[in-house]
Structure formats: structure tokens, C-alpha cells
């Protein structure tokens, strides 16, 4: 139950004590978040219309802003009807991360379940929320959403997951393993202070990541010169990421696999996938879930404007409206 007034907008909260799965504890763990929309309460003062957005690999709390078209009045997640919460994930600046804490290589190893518990603890402590109406997620955020629903199946009514998967395997495992090898091969990785030469490792990492960034169709349609220009921009943008933050996120992805827990999910699930996605293929990451998760629906789209890893949920507005109509009271 909420015990203080809720203010819309950006904020920071400090978790006094956060315990990881294997027992290590961090004190004064920072949480970056944003709140928007209209909270609604039951007779006991509990918020009943909260929707959490779990951002992608390179996102943060502000990624929720990319959903503006589906949060306008009359849209699927009308801010007059829902209370939208976006939290920068554990391990990502400016929430608690290796770089923000200054712990660097000494930061606790964390799992996707730890990332889920980080958000759950914030919701409970800051907002008095122990269960949410639903979770929207994309990419890496989908790992959190699936894990949340498997480990705590009574804590949400629905999931909407865009371009994600339920495990790291096959092509994704090869990519994650290659990145682990690139990062781990640097001699300065375990020094006490951050060596500037570590930033150069991110050039190699981002070159590899770029190979997953666009859909097969878009890569094929671009000239080599276009690929070069966009690749240079992608690598330059990625240099702003701290190597230790990247390493710990990648470590959590390497060990991600909840296939044997999918049967625990009670929520209704809408899964959205691109037909041309290189990284999350419908054949292996989406379509099998129709038989693995009860009350699930998979829809496939051609993403032609940008890449298959697009934040824009408005592509499938009609499907979102149809899915959300079952929760109208």
C-alpha cells in the first residue's frame, strides 16, 4: 500500500540493502526510474493498474518515452487509464552498476533473476506495489519479463514481449561467448583502476554487436558504403558504455535459460516477433512458445522502417488494442 504522494516524472531511489541470489549484499543501491500516468487504487489503497516497462540491452528508464504513440489518450496504454513505471535495470547506469558504484570488476555477479528482484524491491519499497497489472518488454527486458512471470507467476495479469527469447542458445550464445572472449582477453581487465585502453575493447565488441543490429532484409538492401557509415556511428555510440558494465550484463545473458520454468507462467502473454530478425528469430525464439506457454499468442511482423530491434510498439496497434480489450472493466 502506498504511504506517500506519487509524483510523475524522473526520480532516484536508494535501496538500503539489496541481496543477490548467491548471498552477497550491496548497501545503498541506486535506482533510476520514471513514473507517468494515473494510478488507480483498490479499497485497501493498493495500486491496481501499474504497468512496468522493461527496456532493451542498450536502454534505460527513458526508453519508455519511445512508447508515446501507444500511451496517448485512446491508445492501448492510455496514460489516463494506466500507471506506467520504467526502471533502469540492475547493472545499467545510472542505476546500481559496476561503474556507478566504482566496484568495477569487484561488482557482484548477478543473474536475470537478480535484475527482476531489483525491480520488485523498488516497487514494493517505493510504491507499495507487490503485484502489477502487466509488463511490457523488449529485447533484454524480455528476459526479465519471462523470468518474472516464471519465478513469481501470481504477480502480473499479462505480458507483452517484443523481440526477445526465453534462453541464450545457438547464434546468441556464440555472440555472447565471443564478446566474453574479447573482453576477457584484455590484460588490464582486473586492474584496480579503470584503464583508458579498456575503452578500445568496446570497438571490437561493438563491431560484433553491429552484426546483430539490423534485420536480414535491411542488411541485404544496404550498400557496403552505407553499412560502413552506419557501423562507424554504431561503434562510436557504443564507446560511451563502460566495459565493466558491459561485461556483467553479458555474463548474466550467457547463463540465461528459463525453458524448464515456462510452464509456471499464469499471465496471458502476447509475443511479438520480426520475420527478418537475425538475433531473435521467430523460428526458434517465438513460435515454439505457443506450445510452451498457456494463454499465449504469437504475432509476426515485417519491420521495414528501421531495424528489427525497434522500440516502436505502434506497428501493431490493432493487435495491442485487441489484446488489452480483455482487461477492460
Task: Give an account of the 3D structure.
The protein is globular and about 60 Å long. It is an alpha/beta fold and 329 residues long. The chain has helices at 68-71, 98-101, 112-127, 140-151, 170-184, 198-210, 216-221, 224-238, 243-254, 282-286, 289-292, 317-324; strands at residues 9-19, 25-37, 50-54, 83-87, 134-138, 158-162, 268-274, 296-301. It has 2 domains: 9-167 and 257-327, Rossmann fold; 171-252, no CATH class. It is built from 12 helices and 8 strands. Helix 3 (112-127) crosses helix 4, helix 5 runs antiparallel to helix 6 and helix 5 packs antiparallel against helix 9.
Number of domains: 2
The N- and C-terminal alpha carbons lie at a distance of: 22 Å
Structural class, by secondary structure, is alpha/beta
Q: Give me the count of strands.
A: 8
Radius of gyration: 19 Å
Listing every helix as H and every strand as E from the N terminus to the C terminus, the arrangement reads EEEHEHHEHEHHHHHEHHEH
Share of residues in strands: 15-25%
The low-confidence runs, each spanning 5 or more residues with pLDDT under 50, are none
Rough shape? globular
- Mean pLDDT comes to 90
Strand arrangement across the biggest beta sheet: 1-2-4-3-5-6-7-8
Helix content: 25-40%
Quick overview:
With 329 residues, this protein is an alpha/beta fold. 35% of the residues lie in helices and 17% in strands.
Which terms summarize this structure?
329 residues, alpha/beta, Rossmann fold, 2 domains, eight-stranded mixed beta sheet
Amino acid at each position: 500500500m502506498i504511504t506517500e504522494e506519487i509524483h510523475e516524472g524522473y526520480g532516484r531511489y536508494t535501496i538500503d540493502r539489496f541481496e543477490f541470489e548467491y548471498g552477497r549484499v550491496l548497501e545503498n543501491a541506486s535506482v533510476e526510474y520514471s513514473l507517468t500516468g494515473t494510478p488507480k487504487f483498490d479499497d485497501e489503497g493498493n495500486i491496481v493498474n501499474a504497468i512496468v516497462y522493461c527496456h532493451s540491452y542498450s536502454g534505460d528508464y527513458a526508453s519508455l518515452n519511445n512508447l508515446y504513440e501507444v500511451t496517448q489518450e485512446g491508445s492501448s496504454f492510455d496514460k489516463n487509464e494506466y500507471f506506467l513505471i520504467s526502471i533502469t535495470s540492475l547493472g545499467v547506469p545510472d542505476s546500481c552498476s559496476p561503474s556507478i558504484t566504482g566496484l568495477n570488476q569487484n561488482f557482484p555477479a548477478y543473474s536475470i533473476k537478480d535484475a527482476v528482484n531489483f525491480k520488485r524491491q523498488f516497487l514494493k519499497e517505493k510504491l507499495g506495489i507487490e503485484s502489477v497489472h502487466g509488463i511490457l518488454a523488449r529485447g533484454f527486458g524480455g528476459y526479465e519479463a519471462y523470468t518474472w512471470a516464471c519465478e513469481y507467476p501470481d504477480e502480473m495479469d499479462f505480458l507483452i514481449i517484443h523481440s526477445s527469447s526465453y534462453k541464450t542458445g545457438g547464434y546468441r550464445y556464440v555472440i555472447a561467448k565471443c564478446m566474453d572472449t574479447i573482453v576477457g582477453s584484455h590484460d588490464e581487465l582486473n586492474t584496480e583502476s579503470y584503464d583508458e585502453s579498456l575503452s578500445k575493447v568496446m570497438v571490437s565488441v561493438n563491431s560484433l554487436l553491429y552484426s546483430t543490429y539490423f534485420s536480414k532484409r535491411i542488411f541485404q538492401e544496404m550498400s557496403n558504403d552505407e553499412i560502413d557509415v552506419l557501423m562507424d556511428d554504431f561503434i562510436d555510440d557504443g564507446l560511451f558504455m563502460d566495459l565493466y558494465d558491459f561485461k556483467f550484463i553479458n555474463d548474466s545473458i550467457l547463463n540465461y535459460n528459463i525453458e524448464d520454468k515456462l510452464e509456471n507462467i499464469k499471465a496471458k502473454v502476447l509475443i511479438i516477433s520480426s520475420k527478418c530478425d537475425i538475433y531473435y528469430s521467430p523460428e526458434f525464439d517465438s513460435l515454439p512458445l505457443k506450445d510452451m506457454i498457456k494463454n499465449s499468442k504469437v504475432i509476426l511482423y515485417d519491420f521495414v522502417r528501421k531495424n528489427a530491434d525497434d522500440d516502436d510498439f505502434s506497428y501493431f496497434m490493432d493487435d495491442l488494442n485487441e489484446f488489452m480489450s480483455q482487461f477492460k472493466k
